[in-house]
Each structure stands twice: as structure tokens, then as C-alpha cells.
Amino acid sequence: MGVLRSAMADALLTSLWIFTMPFLRIFTLHISAFLRLQAVPLAAFFITTVLASLMMFVFTLIGNALGGASFNPTASLAFYAAGLKKDFSLLAMAVRFPAQAAGGVVGVKAVLGVLPRELRETMKGPSLKVDMQTGFLAEGLLSFGLCLSLLVVLFRGPKNPLVKVLLMAATTVGCVGTGAKYTGPSMNPANAFGWAYVNNWHNSWQLYYVYWLGPLTGATLAAWVFRFLLSPSPTSSKDKKA
To answer: Hey, which of 19, 122, 190, 233 would disulfide with 107, CB 3.0 to 4.6 Å?
Structure first.
């Protein structure tokens, strides 16, 4: 029953996250126009980072209130592979990942249902702009960099939670900008599945190879690098306590 509750919480949090994501772009464009910063190259990056920080902070609180819910299979796998989720298992992921994917579909359908037509036409979600092998490598490398950065920030970074959130948001925005000309990007299989379902390519090999296998492979490698090279050793932790 605990796994089912967790899966339902994941589905809810994922749908809320994916529903909210498109508004980051909309608000960034409106704020840039209001401040007349469209011509400033880094303006969009800073505005998006601030908005993403607020969004991540709120969703962290919601996730904790839901008992540790997650909206990204990539992050869940990274924590598990790094040995940081002792109560997580392959069985739990087998149940929770489909729930997150279902939440992605609900989130995409909901946001497309409330946006005006002119905005809906600009919201297509992640799309492959290169060949499949390059797309797989792009999603894998971006997810590797993102997950490794998140693990370092969360467990080896500054103690201030607001600084942590700001660094995670900046890393995420930077990865999104880097991968825009390759895969969209996604770095979140649940997000990719939601958009693929709405756009009727959810049964394609492209989706599972590029947008599922790529990010999950990158997340696993990042977790192993962190676990064996960067994670604090039990010995050092005992020395600190002593």
C-alpha cells in the first residue's frame, strides 16, 4: 500500500509540475518585455532562474508534504543508484515511473486546456532536432550533468536551502538552454511522455530510446560517479561526529 500511495503522490506532483512548466517561459517573456530587457542576452536566463527557483522551492515543500513525492524518474533513479534512497527499490520504481508518466499526460492536457489558442500552438514539448543517436547522447549527457550537479549541491554544497535551490535552478536552466537545439530538451521521461502522448508519438521507439533510456542512463552514471568518487565516506562522517 505504501508504494501505491507513493505512486499516486508522484502522479499528482508530476501533473502539477508539468502543468506549471510552460508558464515559466510565458512569464519570462512578459517580464523581459515589461522591463525592456529583450535585447540583453543574459536577461532571460536570470529571470527564468529566479522563477524556476521559486517554483522548485514550492514544489519541494509540496513533495515533502506528500511524503517525498517525485516528479522526475531521472532524479528518482539517481538518488536510488547513489545509495541515498534506502526505502526505494526496483519494484517501487516499476510502479512509480508509470504513475509519473500518467501524471505527465494529465499535466500536459490540463495546461493545453487552459492556455489560449495562440499560446497552445507554440507549446509542442520536447522534439528531436538531430538523429536518434545524437539525441540519445544529448539527453544522456545533459541528464548526467544535471543529476551530478544536483547531487553535489544537495549533499556537498552550501547549507543554506535557498542557495541550494538557486544553484539547482541555474543548473537546470543552463542544461535546458544547452540542449534546446538537440532534443528540446527534456531530461524528464515523464514530461517527454506527456507531450508525446498528446502529439501522438508515444508509441515510437524514438521516445523510449532518446527520452527514456538516454536520461535514465545519464542519471545512473552520474549517481555512480557521485557515490564512488564524491560521496562522503562513512569513516569521515564518524570522525566528524567524534
So the answer is: 19
Cis omega (within 30 of 0) on the bond before 185?
yes
The maximal CA–CA distance of the chain, rounded, in angstroms, is: 63
d(CA 74, CA 101): 12
d(CA 219, CA 79): 9
- Which is more confidently placed, 236 or 146? 146
Average model confidence (pLDDT) for the chain? 91
Q: Cα–Cα distance between 177 and 90 in angstroms, integer?
A: 32
| Surface-to-core class of residue 226, CB atoms within 10 Å of its CB (0-12 exposed, 13-18 middle, 19+ buried) | buried
Whose grid coordinates read 540542449?
Answer: 179
Q: Could you tell me the sign of the dihedral formed by the alpha carbons of 166, 168, 173, 175, in that order?
A: positive
In this structure, are residues 59 and 17 in contact, taking their beta carbons and an 8 Å threshold?
A: yes
* Number of Cα atoms under 13 Å in the Cβ half of residue 59: 24
pTM to 2 decimal places: 0.91
DSSP class of residue 70 equals -
Distances (CA, A) of 235 to 67, 153, 179, 240, 241: 30, 21, 39, 9, 10
